[in-house]
Amino acid sequence: MNVKRTAIAVALAASSGVALAQDPAPFTGNITLASDYKFRGFTQTRFKPALQGGFDYAHKSGFYLGNWNSNVAETLYDGASLETDFYGGYKFTVGNLNYDVGAIYYAYSGSGKKYSTIDNKEIYFGLGVGPITAKLYYSLGDYFSTQSLYKALNAGQKGAATDGTTYFDLAATHDLGDGWGINAHVGFLNVKNGTQNGLIGNSVTDYKIGVTKDISGWVLGAAYLTTSKKNFFTTSLEGTPVAAGTGKVLVSLAKTF
Fold first, then answer.
1. Pairing relationship of beta strands 119-129 and 97-107 according to DSSP bridges
2. What integer pLDDT is reported at residue 23 of this predicted model?
3. Which residues are CB-contacts of 53 (< 8 A; sequence separation ≥ 6)?
4. Cα diameter, the chain
5. Contacts of 17 (CB under 8 A, 6+ apart)
6. Which of 38, 110, 194, 197 has the most C-beta neighbours closer than 10 Å?
7. Is 65:82 a contact under the CB 8 Å cutoff?
8. What is the pTM of this model?
9. Virtual torsion, Cα 204, 206, 240, 120, nearest 10 deg
10. How high is the mean pLDDT in each 10-residue block of the chain (257 residues)?
11. What is the pLDDT of residue 87?
């Protein structure tokens, strides 16, 4: 459901930026092989490798549409092994500020085998200046089915609504030259009624610092990702779950074409 969001952000920036600047082919694709899939600081694959990819359409007017996919752990998504995201929005520039407004839908086909079908719907607003970007996500429904899963796992418990959950993403990149780059990110998740749905709190912060190297169009990356509350989310809905926010080094190889 950080690497994925980072991958989407990078893919959109690459596709939309090029299309607006040079107006070449409006369609682009992207593929990534990563040692783990972390979303907002938490592993989605139980610290195992992920194969990810998608497609983007960016119109010269600023409108864009896209799809992104990744394998996920079935034990975390109630039987689903694939995440499929659909997103669309509008990018524009006013003065030195870059704006990005859109919506994203996260689907997990095959989920709901024992407890609940899992999905999520968010709208977002982004603002960027130079190498710094900030983006706010707002959940329109049950945040990744948190309340539904809590009710299914705890008979007789109702939990509480999680619509209105927010995530604030602050990121920065710097080009070092000769194909090298560095990047950093901090994210703030505030789950509405998190404790009423079995979480250890209502908020958690995730961090990332990384380096990239462009090798003939292939981008090799290495980053360290961690969280303020390692067990805010776990790697399984039941059984013997492990803290999903444990700090790890993630290595990836990506290409946009």
1. antiparallel
2. 61
3. 29, 30, 31, 32, 68, 69
4. 60
5. none
6. 38
7. no
8. 0.91
9. 70
10. 45 38 76 98 98 98 98 98 98 98 98 97 98 98 98 95 98 98 98 98 98 98 98 94 97 97
11. 98
Residue 15 confidence (pLDDT): 35
pLDDT at 1: 54
**Are 45 and 35 contacting, i.e. CB atoms less than 8 angstroms apart?**
no
Structure tokens, 52: 């990810």
The residues spanned by each domain of the chain are 3-256
Extract the runs of DSSP E, i.e. beta strands, from the chain. 27-34, 38-39, 42-43, 50-58, 63-71, 82-94, 97-107, 119-129, 132-139, 166-177, 180-190, 203-215, 218-227, 248-256
- 3 state DSSP class of 149: helix
CB of 5 closer than 8 Å to CB of 229: no
Instruction: Identify whether the C-beta of residue 205 lies closer than 8 Å to the C-beta of residue 227.
Output: yes
Cα separation, 107 vs 109, whole angstroms:
6
Strand partners, 63: 90
Structure tokens, 92: 């524009």
Among 171, 167, 132, residue whose Cα is nearest residue 6: 171
Read off the amino acid at residue 152. A
Conformation bin of residue 179: beta by default, left when phi > 0, alpha when psi is -120 to 50: left
3-state class of 11 per DSSP? helix
- Is residue 189 within 8 A of residue 167, CB to CB? The reply is yes
CA distances from 82 to 9, 87, 203, 227 (A): 20, 17, 26, 24
